[in-house]
Automatic annotation (TrEMBL):
Domain of life: Bacteria
Entry keywords, A to Z: Hydrolase, Membrane, Transmembrane, Transmembrane helix
Residue ranges crossing the lipid bilayer per the database entry: 36-54
GO molecular function, one term: hydrolase activity
Organism of this sequence: Sharpea azabuensis
Entry keyword Lipid metabolism: no
Pfam families per UniProt: HAD
InterPro entries: HAD-like_sf, HAD_hydro_SerB1, HAD_sf
SUPFAM superfamilies: HAD-like
Stated name of the protein: HAD-superfamily subfamily IB hydrolase, TIGR01490
Coiled-coil annotated residue ranges, if any: none
Length: 206
């Protein structure tokens, strides 16, 4: 098994300011005004989630209805117009810095691969929430689990096992704005917190 330096990056409020799904919802309402009524279903499922009648994945699927409305090219346009401008320039440089240092750079995010695949960031592996593809187009139906919390670690470990790799703990890095990423950050020695206010970096202490 080969030991490799790794750098694990969250995306929302880490590489880019704000939550990408909110950007997609706002974009969808502008393009499809009547889709605002789809939020009623989200509200119903939200109540079901609170009452433990609906899973987190089922709730998120109702929020992902824009994926059923847009083609791949439309999702590419959304990503370029609404997500790329929200990148923190210094965090893009941080990605490149770790890659140039020989780290295997992971972008691990709850955001959907349906549109995250259009990023041109200096990364090696993209791990996002996966949704079903029908006739070449992505849908709102989630495959597996939402790529969040401890499930990020499951995805990372699956990749490492498949490729016969082990993390060089001492020389690896983790970046996030959120305590929900503590399971991922525990995989490495060097942990960096990203400020939601301005994207500044500081030691992540927990």
């Amino acid at each position: 098994m080969k030991s490799v330096k790794c750098a694990f990056f969250d995306f929302d409020n880490t590489i880019a300011k704000g939550d990408t799904i909110y950007k997609l919802l706002a974009y969808t309402i502008k393009k499809h005004p009547l889709s605002i009524f789809r939020f009623l279903l989200t509200m119903i499922y939200g109540i079901g989630y609170i009452l433990h009648l609906v899973s987190k994945e089922k709730l998120k699927e109702t929020i992902l209805f824009p994926l059923d409305l847009f083609t791949s090219e439309e999702l590419r346009t959304f990503y370029q117009e609404k997500v790329v401008p929200s990148y923190y320039p210094h965090m893009v440089k941080e990605l490149k810095k770790r890659k140039d240092e020989g780290c295997l750079v992971f972008l691990v995010t709850a955001s959907q691969e349906a549109y995250m695949r259009f990023n041109k960031l200096p990364i090696d592996i993209l791990m996002g929430t996966q949704t079903e593809i029908i006739n070449g187009e992505y849908t709102s139906h989630i495959i597996g689990k939402n790529c969040k919390d401890a499930h990020k670690v499951d995805r990372i470990n699956d990749y490492l096992k498949k490729n016969n790799l082990a993390i060089d703990y001492e020389h690896s890095y983790g970046y996030s704005d959120s305590t929900s990423d503590i399971p991922m950050l525990k995989l490495v020695k060097n942990r960096i917190r990203i400020s939601k206010k301005d994207g500044s970096m500081s030691p992540f202490v927990f």
